[in-house]
Write a structure and sequence with these properties.
CATH architecture of the largest domain in chain B: 3-Layer(aba) Sandwich
Number of strands of chain A: 0
Helix content of chain B: 25-40%
Distance between the termini of chain B: 35 Å
Largest sheet of chain A: none
Strand content of chain B: 25-35%
Radius of gyration of chain B: 22 Å
Number of domains of chain A: 1
Structural class of chain B: alpha/beta
Strand content of chain A: under 5%
Number of domains of chain B: 2
Number of helices of chain B: 10
CATH superfamily of the largest domain in chain B: P-loop containing nucleotide triphosphate hydrolases
Radius of gyration of chain A: 19 Å
Distance between the termini of chain A: 23 Å
Structural class of chain A: mainly alpha
Shape of chain B: elongated
Order of helices and strands of chain B: EEEHEEHEHHHEHEHEEHEEEHEH
Helix content of chain A: over 70%
Oligomer: heterodimer
Largest interface: A-B, 22 and 30 residues
Shape of chain A: globular
Order of helices and strands of chain A: HHHHHHHHH
């Protein structure tokens, strides 16, 4: 029933972001309807790149939002500022905090992964020239690992921070950091998305194994730290 | 009545170095209805949160149903047998009454469907109604339903009647009284409403500044304590503070009010020796006990 409760709790955020990602995908349809026209001669690969990056960043927002509405929902009327008042009801049940976090974070991770999977499939389907099975796997692995790392960091912050604006501030910080990779090569070298924003992707983008491994490690450390924080937290 | 279902021993808790509980010792016997009293900030809610595992004590011990509650596993085992009703009666805003009941039911194998039906009918709670659309009274009723249908041995309630109208308060108190009388359930609840406590509790525990100042059977306390009113012709003598068995002393000009716990006769004799021109002995109410202990001299 904890899974069911978590689903009821997060379904509207999920639906909202599914709608959001649909808006990104349908950009080529609604942009002309609003009077926006691409200059003549813009290659299809550039349009695809916009959809692909828009989808990726929407996935990151989904990850942040799902994690942020996590174990300590951002509600100003709880036992302490920022803690959801119904948390007292949850904690009074005969369930360990570790399990509460596992279910809540697990459902968010599942929803995020499902969205990334669908996003990856659609994006690759739209890619001019199609996509090989190898590219599809590579694309999915990189997108999912990066999103899960962002998700895990957000879960940790949602356990640490009890005010919504602090949580939003950390989400903003990570988004900016991810965007910096397009400007600074040092940041790009550290990113699991290295090369994915290039027109020539995937031809010039070797698999960034070290950043991917770092993402997995970061996710593991953050989730472990979240358990420790939650188990020690007082309400 | 002798088995102790809930006890604390030297329980202490501080927030930012400020003590909220200082060596709190209390005992609640099985089948009793124990009123947990104290002023705002006395430590009632902190105690309830410590008992239900939402906080950890700095020191001291909690025992529930005979077992020490130290680890999370022990707290979970205890939570299978208790029900915690928070002061604000907060439930999930994204669930309906029916979803809330089904969700809670899943955690308690001994769930009583007959009680669920009985209290749904009695409280006239609509199953399909969303929780945010329930009044505070209805949320209280729903939380009571959840507490009773799970078959809790020890419902612990933080101000269960706060914000309710007199009729609803009366209904809730009657149900709690029936629960203890028929099922032998132990009820531990905090309240500011002394009249309510006096109405249904057989036991009271009064805390002040994080310490228990009175703990006992209500009738025994009323029998043990007496108010002695003394009137003097001149300034009341200072030696009054040394009278035997005195808990509290208050002076109003030539009049002195004493709250005497033990040895009432000895205190009376000594007061007359000190020159009291008028002596009156009265039984005490719970309100007087409360006010004398939390205000002091």
């Amino acid at each position: 029933m904890l899974w069911y409760k978590s689903w009821l709790e997060t379904r509207w955020i999920f639906v909202l972001f599914v709608a959001n990602i649909l808006m990104v995908w349908l950009t080529p349809l609604w942009m002309p309807a609003l009077g926006f026209r691409l200059p003549p001669g813009v290659p299809a690969s550039r349009i695809w790149l916009g959809i692909h990056m828009g989808s990726l960043f929407t996935s990151f927002f989904v990850a942040n939002a799902l994690a942020g509405s996590g174990v300590n929902s951002q509600n100003a009327y709880g036992p302490k500022p920022g803690i959801d008042a119904s948390m007292l009801f949850t904690l009074s049940l005969p369930v360990s905090r570790r399990r509460l976090l596992f279910v809540r974070a697990g459902l968010g991770a599942l929803l995020t992964s499902a969205l990334v999977f669908v996003m990856a499939a659609y994006t690759l389907f739209q890619r001019p020239g199609g996509a090989s099975a190898f590219l599809a796997i590579e694309y999915f692995v990189r997108a999912i690992l990066c999103t899960v790392a962002i998700y895990a960091v957000a879960v940790l912050f949602s356990c640490l921070l009890e005010t919504w604006w602090l949580f939003m501030a950390q989400s903003f910080f990570w988004t900016i950091l991810l965007m910096l990779q397009f400007k600074f090569s040092v940041v790009a070298w550290l990113s699991p998305l290295r090369g994915m924003s290039l027109i020539s992707y995937p031809l010039t983008a070797p698999m960034p194994w070290a950043p991917l491994l770092a993402s997995v490690s970061l996710a593991g450390v953050c989730l472990f730290a979240s358990v420790l924080v939650l188990e020690r937290k007082e309400y | 009545m002798n088995e102790i279902v809930l006890s604390t021993s030297n329980l202490a808790k501080s927030f930012d170095g400020k003590p909220a509980l200082r060596r709190l010792n209390l005992e609640v016997p099985r089948g009793s209805i124990c009123g947990f009293l104290g002023r705002n900030g006395a430590g009632k809610t902190t105690t309830l949160k410590l008992l239900s595992g939402m906080m950890r004590p700095d020191s001291g011990e909690i025992r529930m149903f005979g077992d020490a509650v130290k680890s999370e596993a022990q707290s979970i085992a205890a939570r299978r047998r208790i029900a915690f009703v928070s002061e604000d009666k907060d439930l999930y805003s994204f669930m309906t009454v029916d979803q809330t009941i089904r969700f809670t039911r899943a955690f308690f194998p001994a769930w009583r469907l007959d009680l669920e039906e009985k209290y749904l009918d009695l409280f006239e709670l609509p199953r399909k109604k969303a929780v945010p659309k329930l009044s505070k009274g209805m949320r209280t009723q729903l939380m009571l339903l959840l507490a009773m249908a799970r078959g809790a041995d020890l419902p612990m309630m933080d101000e269960p009647t706060s914000g309710l109208d007199p009729a609803m308060t009366e209904d809730i108190l009657r149900i709690l009284g029936d629960l203890a009388a028929t099922d032998g359930t132990t009820i531990f609840f905090s309240s500011h409403q002394l009249a309510e406590v006096e109405q249904i509790c057989d036991r009271v525990c009064l805390i002040d500044r994080g310490q228990v100042v009175i703990d006992g059977v209500l009738d025994d306390l009323k029998a043990e304590y007496r108010r002695i009113l003394l009137v003097f012709d001149g300034e009341p003598p200072r030696e009054l503070a040394d009278l035997p068995g005195i808990d509290h002393l208050r002076r109003h000009g030539r009049t002195v009010s004493l709250l005497v716990h033990t040895d009432v006769e000895a205190a009376l004799d000594r007061a007359q020796e000190l020159g009291a021109s008028s002596v009156e002995v009265r039984p005490v109410t719970l309100k007087e006990l409360f006010l004398d202990h939390v205000r002091g001299e």
